[in-house]
Write a structure and sequence with these properties.
By secondary structure, the chain is of the alpha+beta class. The chain has helices at residues 37-76, 90-109, 116-121, 214-228; strands at residues 6-7, 27-28, 136-148, 151-161, 167-179, 182-185, 190-192, 205-209, 253-262, 277-289, 292-305, 308-314. Mean pLDDT is 77; it is low at 1-26 and 325-357.
Length: 357
Amino acid sequence: MSPTLSLRRGSRKADPELDVDQSDDVEFEDLPPVADGRHQTTSALGAKAATVGLLTCLALGPVGAVAGGLAFLQSSQPSAAPVVAPVDQSNERAIVGQFAQQVVVTWLTTTQDKPDPMLALVKDAQVSGLSQTAFKVDDSAVSGITFVDGTWSVTVAATITDANKTTARRYFQVPVRYAQGGLTALTLPAPVSPPPVTVGSSNGYRAQVDLTTPLGQAVGQFLTAYIAGSGDVSRYLTPGVNLTPLTPAPYTSVRLSEIRAAGSDQPPAAVPQDGTKTRVLALGTAVVTDQQTANVAYALTLTARAGRWEISAIDPAPVQQQSQAPAASSAPGPASTRPSGSATPPPAGSPTPTTAP
């Protein structure tokens, strides 16, 4: 019996080392081909690529989680309210003020026999209540205006002369509605009291300055050049400061009555070191003629330079007195307000009591 060989791959040629007759039947099985070098290289590269991709995914996993968390937090936070730019109402304010002024003047000068001007401005005006004789109106002006609940409240001042020949400055309040360019006076004007005026000085100039000192002379010479046209103003100014004198000069001379310096300490009689500043209030009389004068007050800032005082500014507002809180009293309060068992302090100058051991 001939042996049967099972080979994985080969040809039908018999192996010469085998003692097998070539005529005998040899059976071969068809198996998958063995991978060559190129295929093996490709497979290795694919395995490496898969490994790198897996490691990359593992590395980027925490990053993606953090990014997702941040995105979630940002989406969950309430969005900030948009910033709304303030509306400029200056033009509307000017229009409303002028209209209210017109309403007041028309109301004061309209009479019963000619009510049409008033009816054209205030639709529901009571014609029967209009005066038979018109008031005389001078120097009308808007003295105050506020915006409340969609309505402008305008206060108009005017100098009124009535039938008794009495002349006074009076004030009237008018509610005005402004909508889509249209103006409406909601009621007739209402007479109101004038704004309160506080009488008295609250400025912070307390130290008297001698008019003959360099500071006093510098102020006097500056004002004489500035409002009386005597001398060159630039000679008395700090370099870089520009103050144009009044032209034509409305006064012929200036007489200073006093100069007060800010604070409680009087400025030195001699000019201090360069750069030292002081603020003063100059009070005086501006003279037109011997029969016509005007009291004047100038708040000034002066700076020392090169051995003299120079004007650095005409202050837009005077120095105000600083309010001080009342000092705590050292006197003991009533006996009922002291803690129980506390001793009353001895009078000033008395010996301090000692406690026996």
